[in-house]
């Protein structure tokens, strides 16, 4: 199993840039799988804890938490940020994390908490000059790769 702390240890600069994208606003987006296999998109908050773990939570009995109990596969997307149309290079980028959610003990209020095991982390940004995209992806078995898309 690979955790956020493993990414930080192996690729600290990349991990810091991904974390910065998740910190631009309080709420991001999470995708889970419903019982019938169709996707469910939910807003959520992310916690990159001081203990090196990436966690997320939800209210007691929330559908997204029940989805994760049944099928732990999860995709996380950073909050989005608008940029001026005349300055695409000012866009800070887009970060996504895919993984598996591992439930932790419930809070006193019955809320759900999950620790996220990483299976993929992707950071996309505008290149310099701003005529292409730079896509960096990290996988536990392959490490960090970079490619450009024009």
- CATH-defined topology: Pnp Oxidase, Chain A
Oligomer: single chain
CATH architecture: Roll
What spatial order of strands do you see in the largest sheet? 1-2-3-6-5-4
The percentage helix is 10-25%
Protein name: Pyridoxamine 5'-phosphate oxidase
GO cellular component, one term: cytosol
Biased composition (Basic and acidic residues): 100-113, 129-143
InterPro entries: F420H2_bilvrd_red/Heme_oxyg, Pyridox_Oxase_N, Split_barrel_FMN-bd
Textual characterization of the structure:
- By secondary structure, the chain is α+β, with helices and mostly antiparallel strands.
- The protein has one domain (4-149): Pnp Oxidase, Chain A (Roll).
- It has helices spanning 4-10, 12-22, 63-70; strands at residues 27-33, 39-48, 54-58, 73-77, 94-104, 112-126, 133-139, 143-149.
- Strands 1-2-3-6-5-4 form a 6-stranded antiparallel barrel.
- It is globular.
- It starts with a helix and ends with a strand.
- GO terms for molecular function: coenzyme F420 binding; oxidoreductase activity, acting on the CH-CH group of donors.
- Residues 17-106 form the Pyridoxamine 5'-phosphate oxidase N-terminal domain.
- Pfam families: PNPOx_N.
- It comes from Micromonospora chersina.
Brief description of this entry?
With 150 residues, the protein is an alpha+beta fold.
Defining traits:
Pnp Oxidase, Chain A, 17% helix, 150 residues, coenzyme F420 binding, Pyridoxamine 5'-phosphate oxidase
